[in-house]
Amino acid sequence: MPNASARPKHSGRRSHRRHREDPARNQLVSSSLESAQQCLFNQDYGPAFVHYLLVLNLAPEFKDFAKESFRFTLFKWAEELDSAGRIQDLFGCYEQALELFPADEVILNSVGEHLFRMGFRDEAAGHFFKALKLKPDYAEARENFYRVANWLVERWHFLMLNDHGRNRKYQQAIQKAVRDGCATVLDIGTGTGILGMCAKKAGAAEVYACELSKTMYELACEVVAANGMDGGIKILHKKSLEMEVPTDIPHRVSLVVTETVDAGLFGEGIIESLIHAWHHLLLPPRKGDSRDSSATGRVIPAGATVYAMAVECLEIRRHNKLCVSEVGGLSMAAAEQLRSPVSCSAEADDSMEPYTTERLSRLPGGYAALTEPLTVLRIDFNNVEELEGLSSRPVQRLRVPVVRDGELDALAVWFQLHLDEESSLSTGPHEDTCWEQAIYPEHASKGFVLKRGDELLVDVSCRDAYLRLRSVAVLRSGRELRLDASTDPRDPEAELCSALASLQTRPDVCVLECSEMALLNNGDYHHSFAAALSKLLTRLKAEPEQSSDPLYILDVSEGFSLLSLMAASHGGVKAYSSVEKRKQQEVLERLARANGVPDGSLEFWLNNGEDEQGALQRPSREKLWSAIFLDCVETCGLVRQKLMEKASLARCLLEHGGRIFPQKMAVLGTLVESDTLLLESAVQGRDATLGFNIAPFINQFTVPVHVFLDFSTLACRHLSEPNELFVLDLMDAKANYDHREVQVVTTAPGRITAVPFWYDIHLDEEVRVSTLAPDSHWKQAAVVLQRPLEVTAGERVRLSVKIRNSSISIEVRKDP
Ligand code: 44T
């Protein structure tokens, strides 16, 4: 029976009575309800959904009664719309559903899942977060949230807020400016609101703040209110470039404070923001020796100095260019055009990033400085003409002496942020700060070895608001050795000639992600695969019932993979690759020809974006797969989502004696004490954040699993040996469990703060690959404990390890 006592939410008593007494409406409601149920029964979800919408809009009192069926209908209909590619309709339906049930955590979670699949990660994360706030013990939403929280509130917020040195310097500079008369302040990119609160606390009469991220804006509002300043700071959810006087702020301000800088200084758009601020939001700059700060405008930071140095670094090299001539028995001579998407070269287009970021001091294998630091740029944020002139500055060619022999892998860049005349922050590689450095990789293939005494020529320019650095040549014994084929950008004619020449002769570049480049360079992985594969093929081919048909092999690795080609290079095999991008398929085809792989033995699967099920079904019906390659660990160090579902599907599609590679994987982990991991996962206490109450708010975005960890360079104390925590058997469903208790004996006294984990991937009984190997393309992950556990040496602790939907959770307690 419908729950007739449920009162419609938005209609008052009178309209409620009117509804009940309106026989035509009642008639329509009951017939629509009946139709909805009938359509649902017939699995006719579209019309069922429309009928339900009508019923619930006309008769909200049925909401409780019909909620379950309505949701079911919605999800089924959404699935149909999704597979028909009717995305706009799909979101339209969800929008209508959320109008009816704005606080329904299941609907919110489901919208989030759709958004995530479409690549809208921030929006997805926002929906998971709302669902979780409504129902904190909703496991699906929690797992979803953990997967995406990193996009919503980036992890560096924790680092920056825990960086006491940086916070204090900003605070002191702001205090000084306010004391000097800056009474009206705008904090651009306020994040959690910390700089705005500093200004208020220092006594500024009016404080404004703006923040473009919705989540951060909402967080700032909460934080400012919790610190009793909500009346004193006006926060706007806006990009500063969209602000104007008097609509957003009543008049121009005397101080702009901002830390909208990334590791490459300009990547967050500080130049554009400050040019706009000087034209629209700030009082005119101080001229001459005028001392009246209340009538003039200024910026904290006042300016910056940017430094660069050339480095040799294997870790950077193997993520950006091909370093091997052979992979798993295949010659790579025909694959020279492969490179990472990080480039400042003349031919780099907009899809390329000019730099990546790394903390040099934590790179596995370290790095060697080949030059002294070189000053590449000085910029005064209080000089609007200088800011405006930056992008039209001519390319500047700098010379830097080489102080040590080594291969030129990258230019590393950092800066000093001058908060005012006295105080500055450095993001350099030797500082004990939260900052990473910007890395401009050198692509000139084959690698150029610099010699002590050489001089390196570096071109510096500013384009699209990015600082661009390019090593162009080396001066050695009076001769100039060019580093790339392109010509002097200051000579337009030569540039045109070279562009024309490259159109005719150069095969176009094929771009792979940095992690895909590192995968290609992972010799151990390919070597192990080749060994296991060749064993399997030899065995299958020797089987008496083996006809003259080829063996069918499917590689469902995500992204670029050479495994199918390795399989195809064995005679008598037909291999299917899941590589989707046309350019990458061409590279595989070229490599196939160059390696004498017979025509037709390599095919591309998934060319038309079929669904997951389709991806695993073999083309011809009469024969099953001999081997299916699953790539089971993501680069970030987590088990790939839906791995076990894919494995069980794959098992059904194997011929007798066929194999899934890998056969199983073991999760290994060590107990450690690491303050670094704590500082990167949550804001610790109030001390670091200048006494402001920020931690509880931002820490809602803490996730228990830290990803992309370099365990080999993590500052930590090992408190145990590595232990096997869990085993996932891909060939045998019955061997799997979802919960395991592991006893670990500690080897040293300390506080257990985290459990870093990685995998031993067993391709077959003998061949094994570790994701912790030195040349691995995988990073590691770590579970960071909610509460550290103090232990002595030789103590027994019990780990409760669970794997649910590919995500791992670990609890540690003392063994009673
Ligand atoms: N990360 C550094 C960048 N914003 C620093 O939405 C150092 C990275 C980093 N708001 C590891 C370590 C570190 N108007 O919330 C953001 C952003 C906002 C604006 C309004 C604007 N014009 C902007 C521009 C940006 O400002 C906040 C800070 S942005 C830079 C943060 C710890 N990986």
Write up this protein.
Helices cover 33% and strands 25% of the residues. With 816 residues, the protein is of the alpha+beta class. It folds into five domains: 127 residues, Serine Threonine Protein Phosphatase 5, Tetratricopeptide repeat (Alpha Horseshoe), CATH 1.25.40.10; 139 residues, Rossmann fold; 212 residues, Distorted Sandwich (Hnrnp arginine n-methyltransferase1); 108 residues, Rossmann fold (3-Layer(aba) Sandwich), CATH 3.40.50; 150 residues, Distorted Sandwich (Hnrnp arginine n-methyltransferase1), CATH 2.70.160.11. Helix 13 links the parallel strand 4 and strand 5. It is globular and about 95 Å long. The two termini are 53 Å apart. The structure holds ligand 44T. Ligand 44T binds next to helix 9.
Bound molecules: ligand 44T
Under CATH, the topology of the largest domain can be stated as Hnrnp arginine n-methyltransferase1
How helical, in percent, are the residues? 25-40%
- The number of helices is 24
Give the N-to-C terminal Cα separation.
53 Å
Uncertain residue ranges: 1-15, 486-492
Sheet of most strands: 7 strands, antiparallel
| Broad structural category | alpha+beta
What is the name of the CATH superfamily of the largest domain? Hnrnp arginine n-methyltransferase1
User: What's the overall average pLDDT, rounded?
Assistant: 89
The tally of structural domains comes to 5
